[in-house]
Amino acid sequence: MTHPSTTGSAPVLALRDVSKSFGAVRALRDVSLELLPGEVHALAGENGAGKSTLIKTLAGVHRPDAGQVLLDGAPVVLHGPGDARDAGVAVIYQEPTLFPDLSIAENIFMGRRPRRSLGRIDHRATHTATLALMRRLGVELDPDRPARGLSIADQQIVEIAKALSFDARVLIMDEPTAALTGSEVARLFGVVRTLREQGAAVLFISHRLEEIFRICERVTTLRDGALIASEPLAGMTEDDLVRRMVGRDLDDLYPKQDVTPGEIALSVRRLTREGVFTDVSFDVRRGEIVGLAGLVGAGRTEVARAVFGVDRRDAGEVTVDGRALTNGAPSTAMAAGLALVPEDRRAQGLVMDMSIERNIGLTGLRTTVRAGLMDRAAERSRSLDWAVRLQVKYTRIADAVSTLSGGNQQKVVLAKWLATGPRVLIVDEPTRGIDVGTKAEVHRLLSELAADGVAVLMISSDLPEILGMADRVLVMHEGRLTAEIPRSEATEETVMAAATGRAAA
Amino acid sequence: MADVSLSRAVRWDTVVGALLITVLLLSFGLVDGFGNALNLSFLIGNTLPIALIALPMTLLVVSGEIDLSVASTAGLSGAVMGALWNQGMSIETIIPICLLLGVVCGLVNGLLVTRLGLPSLAVTIGTLAAYRGIAQIVLGSDAVTDFPTPYLDFASGRIGDTFVPYALLPFLLLLAIAVVALHATPFGRSLFATGASEEAARFAGVRVRRQKLILFTVTGLMASLTGVFWALHYASARYDNATGLELSVVAAVLLGGIDFDGGKGTLGGAVAGVFLLGALQNVMSLQDVSAQSQIVVTGVLLVLSVLGPRVARQIAVARAGRRAVRAAPPTP
User: Fold this and answer.
1) A159 and A228, same structural domain?
2) Which residues on adjacent β-strands are paired with residue A21?
3) A154 vs A160, A452, B317, CA distance in Å?
4) Which residues form the signal peptide (chain A) (predicted)?
5) Which of A274, A289, A429, A464 has the most CB atoms within 10 Å of its CB?
6) What is the CATH number assigned to the segment(s) B4-323?
């Protein structure tokens, strides 16, 4: 175990030997952490490693059972988020919660807007102060614009501006990039660098390792609630970091097998949904993993929905193994052997209140039936079988899926669809928000499916995932397919060029 | 950790069942004239209209929808029955026509909800008024009472000197069908999924719109059947038959632990809720409690029935939380 360094400037905020338990669960064990001014510090660890508890301890939500929180070297007790804010600690969450009907300026100065005489609100001062904050961040956002309709990236900027307006010296960013596009991430990192130069201490959490290496100077790794290491990133490799997080050597994160593609399994012809995407045609062959890349909003998810039939198409044709699919009918798509693992597992992939067994069973309502009635024994064995095959970690198969971690929920969604024995599998952001160990498992699974002759269409905003897994990359830009790039020519540059419409490949 | 949703539903079922038995036992002991077979047959006979509509209503609420026009459909069906009887048509022709009418009423509700995407609460408040209005146009203020004796006897009579009304037998058959449909078929399974998360159900290939259309249509059919039964049971077909019955049905179903937000509950609980309400109404009638006061009691029950399961769930969650803490391994 390495100890935090004591060189350079004094830490603004630190934890010393902090432990925190919930019942019998020891979420943090003797963890120490030092956040230095002008430094971006990464917090790494798998789901359940204790990252959230650590953040909440810094933010005053949890009070440590043992150990101390140190502010400017002096022990403090944070009685709540308000205390943390007054101490200059701000947390930026993955999905900000702004008041949609209020303007950006009103959101930032909520409840403490500059006043004129007689208690009247000084709109001009609010506007000017907001402009000044935006200038500090190097971002152009109109202070009078309502928060409704802002992208998640813009909403985060507003949250950061709000934090600055409270004179925050410590910024904790909890997976801020999970829902951002490449260019939005670049802008956010620009802002983070600006803050760093202005002397702020930043704690940055991300599942995307390459981002940690791009923006951070130090990394603290947690595993099972314990501090594994706190060290400079310089000289470390992604493999080093993964080993610290997982506790063992992880096999290849992208275990792509070479498969000779078979006949065409999924054929999409001139698919159009007015105002959303236009004239989209492509094929996916048996054994092939085809990546569908593009910026968020380019129409990738919408194409998948229309192919599966959750949305109706206005024109075009979809065939699976030569069988034309009825428009707007997921049930016929399923019968033809098509499966869609949707983008939003909590809202679309799973019925959160239902058990693991019944969620997996939901795709088997036509098969686990005897004489028109549910065959409960068959349903249970089918669900158990797939839950075990995908190594879902659960206590009882009858537990609600909401009790599982994100990665295990995603495995249940996969189990639910693989149980249908699909010939064509569409996966939309299959590894979003899940930890690196589970991510590798999902990739291995997709690779094995392809090797077994399943045609896989993989939508992903995670470019390394696309490059690592896809035999072929389709790129969408503003509702149109703009490029098809074979694996050998696919690089971040060629894909991003097509995704941003800079070049036609 | 326990499956909170399931354990809660089971627990609330049990609570309502126990409550029903308690009320029955207390009434046997304390209320004069309650325990004899004739009164019990009245209790059951007078509760059957609520019970009949509660069957499809349970399925509707489980799938996340509601139909408030059921009492008006029943009234319309009775009014049409009376008007056609006055025209001299045979009862064997009239009843199928009334049932068909119910199918149409339900289909209209279903199409408005599924094709236009309107909320069922709003749609059926509208048709509640519309169907009742049509009933009044059809029959005016007449009361038709001279239906054929065998039909009147069947709808109001009982088997020998027992407490069993004839009409209870077909109801039990319908109950069995509904229980199987909701709890043992793929259709029922998909209703629970739709009620808990319509979007996730759609993504799993559940034909949500078709399913809802079927439910609204069956509900219309059962409401018109209830309207026919009502007119025969009380030997009176009037346009205002069964006014306010939707309140009793919804109260009974929610009291039985069917979650208003959809996705949770059992038919056993719903039927227990129905007969709990029926028993209370019977006892209040025996004690000469006015009809107005009975409506107040129904209203209060409606509020309690929404509140009760929530409280039960919070207790269940708190318990599950404690269990989880006790059972949790030392490391996550």
Assistant:
1) yes
2) A26
3) 10, 43, 37
4) none
5) A289
6) 1.10.3470
> Can you give the pLDDT at residue B114?
95
Which residue among B264, B324, B332 places its CB closest to the CB of A48? B332
Enumerate residues 60 to 119 of chain B having a beta carbon within 8 A of any beta carbon in chain A. none
Question: Which has the closest alpha carbon to A429: A260, A242, A294?
Answer: A294
Which residue type does A70 have?
A: L
CA distance A67 to A3: 16
d(CA B153, CA B143): 19
Quick check: is A128 in a domain?
A: no
Residue B135 in contact with residue B142, Cβ under 8 Å? no
The string of DSSP letters for B48-112 reads HHHHHHHHHHHHHHHTT---S-HHHHHHHHHHHHHHHHHTT--HHHHHHHHHHHHHHHHHHHHHH
Residues 6+ apart with CB under 8 A from B310: none
3-state secondary structure of B325: helix
**Coil vs helix vs strand at A478:** coil
Query: Are A320 and A182 contained in the same domain?
Result: no
**Ranges A159-163, A474-478, A481-485: which has the least confidence:** A159-163
Q: Would A126 be classed as within a structural domain?
A: no
Residues A312 and A325 in one domain: yes
- Chosen from B203, B209, B211, B331 to mutate, greatest number of chain A CBs within 10 A: B203
* Domain identity same for A163 and A241: yes
Are both A275 and A415 inside the same structural domain? no
Which of B3, B114, B179, B192 should we substitute to test contact with A (largest number of A Cβ atoms within 10 Å)?
Answer: B3
The verdict on residue A342 lying in a domain is no
Is A6 a residue whose pLDDT tops 70? no
Which among A333, A350, A361 has CB closest to B200?
A: A350
Cα–Cα distance for residue pair A88/A68, rounded to 1 Å = 17
Q: How many CB atoms lie within 10 A of CB A17?
A: 14
Q: Is 70 exceeded by the pLDDT of residue A148? A: yes
User: Does an H or E element contain B184, and which?
Assistant: helix B168-184
Structural domains of chain A, count: 3
Please, are residues B296 and B284 in contact by the beta-carbon 8 Å criterion? no
Structure-model confidence comparison of residues A120 and A31, the more confident one: A31
Predicted confidence at residue A177, as pLDDT, reads 84
Q: Which CATH number goes with the domain that contains A299?
A: 3.40.50.300
Q: Can you give the residue range of the structural domain that contains A51? A: 13-98+150-246
Nearest CA in chain B to A347: B200
The residues that bridge with B332 in the sheet, in sequence order, are: none
Confidence of residue B163 (pLDDT cuts 50, 70, 90): very high
Q: CA B192, CA B178: separation in Å to the nearest integer?
A: 14
Select from B91, B96, B223, B237 the least CA-distant residue to B150. Answer: B91
Please write the tens of the pLDDT for every residue from B310-324: 777 777 667 665 554
Dig out the tokens for A30 from the structure.
């003797």
Residue A63 lies in a domain: yes
Give me the amino acid identity at A469: M
Q: Where are the extended beta strands (E) located within B11-51?
A: none
pLDDT single digits (tens) B66-92? 999 999 999 999 999 999 999 999 999
pLDDT of residue A251: 63
Within an 8 Å CB–CB cutoff, is residue B247 touching chain A? no
Report which of A409, A396, A309, A394 is spatially closest to residue A359, judged by C-alpha positions. A409
B244 half-sphere exposure, CB direction, 13 A CA radius: 7
User: Can you list the alpha helix ranges (DSSP code H) found in A254-315?
Assistant: 300-308
* Cβ pairs A/B, distance under 8 A: 110
Q: How high does pLDDT run on average in chain B?
A: 90
Q: Among residues A389, A419, A449, which one ends one of the domains?
A: A419
Higher local confidence (pLDDT), A47 or B143: B143
The pLDDT value recorded for residue B331 is: 37
Chain A residues with CB inside 8 Å of B204's CB? 330, 362-363, 416
